[in-house]
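Researcher: For the record, we're logging two predictions in this thread. I'll number them. Prediction 1 follows.
Model: Prediction 1, sequence and structure:
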Amino acid sequence: MGNLRASFFFFLTSTTILALYTPISTAQLTQGETRILFQLQKLLEYPQALNGWTNWTNFCFLPHSSSLKITCQNNHIIELSIVGNKTSPSHTPKPASGKFSPNSQQALSKTFSSDSFFTVLTKLSNLRVVSLVSLGLWGPLPAKINRLKSLEVLNISSNFLYGEIPSSVSSMKTLKSLILADNLFNGSVPDLKSLTFLQELNLGYNRLGPEFPSMGNSLVSVILRNNSLRSEIPLKITTFDQLQLLDISANHFGGPIPSSLFSMPSIQFLNLAGNQLSGGLSVNITCNAELKFVDVSNNLLIGKLPSCIGSRSGNRTVLYSWNCLSTSYIRYQHPYSFCHKEALAVKPPSRSKKEESSTKLGLILGIIGAIVGIIVVVGLLVLIIIRRTNIRTEKNIYDRSAADKMSLRSSPRPNIETRRVPQTMRLTSIGLAPYRIFTLEEIEDATNNFDPSNSMGEGSQEKVYKGWLIDGSVVLVKCLKLKQKQISQSLMQNIEETLSKLRHRHLVSVLGHCIVTLQDHPNTATTVFVVLEHISNGSLAEYVTDWRKKELLKWPQRMAITIGVARGVQFLHTGIAPGVFGNNMKINNILLDNSLSAKISSYKIPLPSKVGVENPLHGQDGGEKEDIYQLGIILLEVITGKLVKSSTELNEMKLELEKGLAVSNLKNVVESTIHGSYAYQSLKTAAEITVTCLSEDQTRRPSIEDVLWNLQYAMQVQEGWNSSGNLSTQM
């Protein structure tokens, strides 16, 4: 497990991946490159990560952080990594017009020019690492990007770049990592076979297609999920001897799965879910011993799973629901007729080529018949008419199949298209390993046999321990007891699928689990051990009350944190099915990581309804509005800098906020340490949505989408105020 996690972390961790050097900033920049940095700051419209730069800033000695890293060597910049807070395309609603507009999403303003920006960027000709993430960049990626002749890592993910990926990328011979994920790129991918050093390719969450990209065989990681690829899986990919991770999920791939895919020499992670792959797999195929994760769910597969992926022995996780497979989990499979009909409807285009050839043959025969005589011509015309009638009839059958497919695909199905295991690969860029199933021995080793000294607390039906995995990473192990002592296979799979969804940037995410029933202890019920990431930077409550920490939280930081909390709540409510409501939303349960990004802990673990630990559904109506109310309390505490200790204090603080809004003067209400750091309209917007969240009448409380929209608007107002250099007196 340690080796697997280490290898995934190596090639999926944003800008530092594949950088085989660890340069130390020992240089003083030239005046030319210093000017370029200020130009980039202006073109990026002064993002938060670049605040505080002055003419006396020594850029080569700026402390590295999660949002900014500048590395110098021999008086030149060789690494520039900037992470912003602009919401990426996959996390924002698509515009109704279907066309991109910088006003419709969190992109940079209309005055931004991608051509101008990359013209300036490429003047830093010594760059080896460029990482520009979530900065709101929009427009086409200019071909001039290939001017960076020494570039090894290019990561411009989570922006709004559109159009085709320029073919000039193919000439960047030194590239080892190319990450263009989470943009709006469309069209065909240029030929990348010439990039002989390329080890990581991540083009996920775009609109690329329809053909499978042409790539070199030096790749270690290939992520193409969530695009518009609709070919068959090429056999050539099975010759990639170094490939460890292949994720082509959520596309339109059809045809059979090449059996040799499972036995590639280095393959460890294989995600083919959410396509239209059909047919059966040979029962005699073999799997690479290092293959740890396989997902073939939501396809059109029939027959039985081969033993090497059908078995749950060892550490291999296999997901295969919603096919037409012959398994004991009939509840999670379609009938054979479904896959047969769907496969006909999405049959590869070879069939139409045959029909085209047949039509040409008919025309040739017609010409030959005309030479024979008028009678034969008439006879052939009759035959052609009959044949066209047959083709038309066949086409009607095809159209009905397509219509049936449309109806079936859009009809509601439990737990379809809601699993988030594939999506966790995107989260590896923030340090999450792929979801996995642990053994009891691993849980015991991690917690030192549940040593009381590792206990982090306990409730009536759960205990929490601190643990250390074999690779040294720190985790939390939550022990939840079920009512029943025996657990069916179908319920076990339900638990696995449910837990594997709980992974998000703003949650203390689930890394894996273990289900154990101790047969020799009749009084011990079945236990689910849930392994979660460990966040050690303290809670939001500490940053609000501890004077040594609260100085860090100016108004922009507070807004970013509350937006993160709202996004976490939105994911719990709408990002998984069924949604999770009634989540014990308290400021003490909002943890902050090293970059001050919010992570919700102690949310409900939505185990199936038969489990006596927690009721996952808690009623959408009541639970949702309760979460909104508790989110309002957290917002109130962040704004005022005071913790709510009783309902009386809550009412008094809410009343003060309402009075401040009524007289357009909030200065005496807000935390004193943020005076001078906020735009009044930004603060006012946040205060207004806070009061609405705290409405006694549940029906007047906003939806989480409304809360998030208002907080994001408040942040945009704040960013505009910051970039204008406005230091006017606050009201």
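Researcher: Logged. Prediction 2.
Model: Prediction 2, sequence and structure:
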Amino acid sequence: MATSLFSALFSAVYLSCWRNTTCSAITEAAFPGVWESNIYAPSSRTVSPTSVLSLATGKLVSKYDGTIALAKNGSAVVFDFGLEVGGIVTIKYTASGKGAGALGLAFTEAKKWIGEWSDSSNGGFRGADGALYSNFSSPGAVVYTMPDAKLRGGFRYLTVFLVAQSASVQISDVSLEIGFQPTWSNLRAYQGYFHSNDEVLNAVWYSGAYTLQTNAVPPNTGRKAGPMAASGWSNNGYLGPGDTIIVDGAKRDRAVWPGDMGVAVPSTFVSVGDLESVKNALQVMYDYQNADGSFPEAGPPLLQQGSDTYHMWTMIGTYNYLLYTNDTAFLAKNWPGYLRAMTYIQSKVSSTGGLLQVTGTRDWARWQTSGNMSHAQMILYRTLTTGATLALWAPPTTTNTSSSPNLTTTWLARASSLQAATLKHCFDAPVGAFKDNATSTTLHPQDANSLSILFNLVDPSSPQAQKISSLLLQNWTPLGAASPELPGTISPFISSFEIAAHLEAYQTQRALDLIRRCWGWYLSHPNGTQSTVVEGYLVDGTFAYRWNRGYGNDASYVSHAHGWSAGPTAALTEYVLGLRVTKPAGGEWVFAPQMGDLEHVRGGFVTRLGRFEGSWARDGEGYTATVEAPGGTRGRLVLPVVMQGFMPRVVLDGREVVEGDGLEWFRRSEVGDLVSVEAVEGGRHVVVVS
């Protein structure tokens, strides 16, 4: 690898991790086991292709053995790395024959676009990415390393082609130095895991985790914004502080997008465990907060403005980060900015109708984005309820000495008023679902209805929520759930909220079926990365997401490693395994397994307090579960009843628990009965339910 890579491009921490010397980052997996075979991350930060494909047919030619000849002008070969990768390529070759020439390098994530032009990353319709060229003027050995600014963030296929009139080349080596997850010397050192009897679900969980790794990048490798050249790309823009930061996609846009983090952060927490990247992504939003209190829609280099929903996602992201880390220093530092942000968004709530009036209309690509759209009401409701909790967690500072209890009361009251107004003006009672806005009569969006359950604007156990969950099925196609608010499109981002909504409503089987239908379809697609989660696609299965919205006509611009689509990773851990934290860093937790058609599940994650791990397995007419949490924490068990209508026998650590002795039975007639055991202390516990 050329020494220029270690000059200005990467930080000192990045450098030490890549050289496996004094890296202070995590170096070992927290939960070693057979499930590590599902990890897509390579075992080395330097990788080589796995096979060679024909450019003409896309079919396998041979396994990669390090050598291949290109004998004439226009001859080409495709190197397949076998999965999504990203970073700096070095190619060694020997030129022979007469005259000068060049070796071209082109990159693509999806097989459909392999060729002498890279798939689009610089803005799609602004100008083609084209290729990189290694020029030679005479026969001899050449070692070519991509320029630092031309780092390719995400690709699976590398097309190498010869441009020469009378020269040939013999390629002797192709290698790639991984550019993502920069502070990790061991890319497989996951701090969480998931394992079940369903291999599709296992693969989906780990594809989400690997996607999030490819989205954690050095903070000086952002996609350069501004006017684009006629071709090419530049990934040398400033993203934010620190040594690593989480962005939206590996290939593009390579910027911080807070809405995307609404899905990416919970899934990062339960899998990779890299919350340093999350912290830096949130911090850059506070660093660039506008004078009026609003946050940008996206961080630098893009710094797009004018999104009320993404403004609120930064606030929700602040809550999520505190929940997972208990980083009170971060909260104290940014609390004044948070208060300004709350004042800004609350000023847009109508004093008459009580609904948020959206004027910052940029959003996730849905059609209608202004006025009193119900989607925004759900997000504001979550902003207020999580804000009320943050106010209790906020440490006293010079700007917040005694206001937290009052803020909690105030924001909960506002949430209640917003809830009533949303139900009054946006709920379509004859249909049983939320309309797109207060005046809409026909469109019932996937996003608002999913979030209404997930964010508990409607009680997930209520008949109302059960009807919404049922009506969401009307959008399903053989390849996933279509979004009525973006016609003809399947959005794994919004579907991530839908699967979580079904699980909140204890419609477990619906969630599992949608994961298999959407994420399982893409993961097995022969033209995809077969290792990551895609930004979106059309209902006919083509990778042309959003092009019916005027974003251009180059479908290769679609990202095939997009963290906003990683929702199943968190959902499978927090709902199906059933283990999640409810107070900062897991000081309090809940274990509430959901089984569906599965036979057994196990998994875990790590916080600063220690390891959390759980499992459950069916056993005849009952099941056995285990849960382990650090000492000094306290949890609650919420256990599904085996025989509906009858109080089960619950044995905890060898002692039967009965009503009045910690066991509570509550009926959920629409979705089955549950029992709970309260105030379970940290430690290892075995539960038998029959």
